[in-house]
Each structure stands twice: as C-alpha cells, then as structure tokens.
Write a structure and sequence with these properties.
336 residues, mainly alpha, two-stranded antiparallel ribbon, 2 strands
C-alpha cells in the first residue's frame, strides 16, 4: 500500500465539503417537494416540520471519496468493497426506514450483515490490523460493540449540529492520533477521517441551529458504521485508549441513559428525551450552545487521545473521564 498523498487528501476533503454543501442545497428542494419532512411530536427537539434525508448527500460524497483515495493508495478493490458496500447497504435500508418505518428487525438484520462483513475484513486485508491471536470470541465482542456504536450514534442525533460536532471530533481526532503513530501504521484510516470531517462540515452549514435539514437515519446509521470502522482500526493497531477517548461523550451519554431507563422499567426501544443533551436543551440552553459544548469538550478529548497515543494511556483516560463527567454535569444543571 502506498502512503497517502497529502495533497490528494486535502483536495478531496475540500471537494467533499463543497459537494456536500451544494448537494444538500439541492436535496432541500427535492425533500420539500415530496413532503419528506420530520414533523415535531412530544419527543422532538424541533418546533417546525424539517426535511429529513440530508445524509443522502453526505453518504454519496463519502463513498466516492473513499474509492478515490484508497484506489490511489493502491488498496485492493475487494478491501474497498468490504467498507463501501456495507455503508451503501445501510444507507439504502435506512432511507427506506426514513420514508416508511420498517420496524426493528430489518434494520438489525442489515446492521448484523454490515458489521459481519466489516469485522471479517478487519484482520487480514488490512495488514494484520487485529491483535494475535484473532479468534471468534474477540470477533463477536467487536461486532456487538460495533452494532451498539451504530445505534447509539443514531440515538444521539437529536438536536441541531450535535452529530456533526461529534463527527468532527472523531474525524480530526483519528488524524491527530495518526501523527503520533509510525507513518504507515494508520495510513488507510486517517485520510478517510479527514475527508469524513470535511464532508460533515459541509452538511453542518445547513444543519447548524436553526437546522434547515436533518441527516435522517440514511446519514446517521452508515456514518456510525464508518466512524466505528475508523475507531476499531485505530484500536486494533494498538491505540485502544485513543479509540475509547475520542467518542467517550457519546458512549457515556447514551449508555448511562440506557441503563437509567432500564432501571426505571421503560421501553428502551421507544423514542424519548432522556439524554443529557436533551435535558440541557429542555432546560433552556440553545441547540447551538449544547453542540458547541460537545465540540469544545471534544477538542480536549482529541488532545488527550494524542497523549494516550504517545504512551500515557492511564493519565489520558482519567483526564477524559473527568472532562466528560464535567460536560454531563453542566448539561444536568439548570442554567441560572
């Protein structure tokens, strides 16, 4: 595999930003024309019907960008397909679910198939990314964790700009961690991370509060798959602490909320407004302020992930835990 061409990566990232920004503008007109709107209900955080499906532009651009970059790096076509095809499949079934609810079973089957392909592809084709010995037990654990990450990423997409902010944190974070690694070690991952961050930044032009369009499941589900792939790749290359630190806010908010709902005997598969970020908005903080707080804390997590990649895993994990707990505490308090 050839090392990434920095000029190509930056040019592709710039093109992805522009393409998503312009593509979303076109999508806005199409979605409004066909009345494909997310209408407010008692569990919504928005007040007016808003087009849902902006993830179509993000996914289309990202799939093309991945193919271009990896082909130039000399990645085998089959290896590219092991990432791109699951993304495309998840986008397709998620779009069908956005338009007409399919129920949980078809979505879960699609996720299991996509993650099965992704986990199978991680060890061999990607230059022995997995630790030795690679066994079925580890594969199952990684698969379950990946499916949980896809779903929590979807669950957390509940206010304007928050998923864009989290994607920027993970995308930029993977690229920063790569600077602490040997040059070739994270070569397949960091160009994708940079381009993903740029593409989502283009979407944020339209999704920042007050949002004119939402990602929809067609965006959040395959995006969760791709970010999960990036984080698993980083972890399996030996930078497990950095891979935990970068998404730690999303992991903590979603997991703590799920446990609390289980303990209260709630039906956890139903929509709700129990997340910490939802509480922050419900008590008077703006979508923009909450999303900026996630981004601000995320910048600190990026720095701590770099520290972890430099060999200070425990101190970095402790610092990340403190940062996330401080963010959750701020979200839990009522503004004065």
């Amino acid at each position: 595999m050839r090392p990434p061409d920095l000029t190509l990566v930056l040019a592709t990232a710039a093109a992805a930003f522009v393409a998503v920004c312009l593509g979303t503008a076109v999508l806005l007109r199409v979605l409004r024309r066909y009345n494909l709107l997310d209408r407010p209900n008692e569990r919504s955080s928005h007040a007016v019907p808003t087009p849902r499906g902006g993830g179509i532009a993000v996914m289309a651009v990202l799939i093309v960008a991945i193919v271009v970059i990896w082909l130039r790096q000399g990645v085998d076509v089959l290896d590219i397909a092991m990432v791109v095809l699951p993304m495309a499949g998840l986008a397709a079934i998620s779009w069908a679910d956005d338009v007409r609810s399919l129920g949980a079973l078809p979505r879960l089957v699609a996720q299991f198939l996509a993650v099965g392909v992704g986990v199978w592809a991680l060890p061999g084709p990607w230059h022995a990314a997995a630790p030795a010995p690679w066994d079925w037990g580890l594969a199952v654990l990684l698969g379950i964790g990946w499916i949980w990450f896809i779903n929590l990423f979807n669950f957390m997409d509940g206010i304007d700009g928050i998923t864009g902010a989290e994607t920027l944190v993970i995308g930029i974070g993977v690229a920063v961690v790569a600077t602490a690694a040997p040059a070739a070690l994270l070569a397949p991952a960091w160009p994708l991370a940079v381009v993903t961050a740029a593409a989502v930044l283009g979407f944020l032009v339209w999704n920042w509060h007050p949002a004119k369009i939402f990602l929809g499941d067609v965006g959040s589900v395959p995006l969760g798959f791709l970010l999960g792939w990036l984080l698993l790749f980083v972890a399996l290359k030996g930078y497990w602490a950095a891979a935990v630190i970068l998404p730690l806010y999303y992991l903590t908010d979603s997991t703590v909320t799920l446990v609390r709902r289980l303990l209260r005997g709630e039906r956890v598969w139903r929509a709700h407004k129990s997340h910490f970020y939802q509480h922050a908005v419900a008590t008077g903080r703006s979508h923009a302020l909450v999303a900026l707080s996630v981004l601000g804390a995320g910048i600190g997590l990026v720095a701590l992930a770099w520290v972890a990649a430099r060999g200070q895993e425990i101190s970095a994990l402790v610092g990340a835990a403190i940062a996330v707990l401080a963010l959750l505490g701020w979200m839990s308090r009522r503004p004065r």
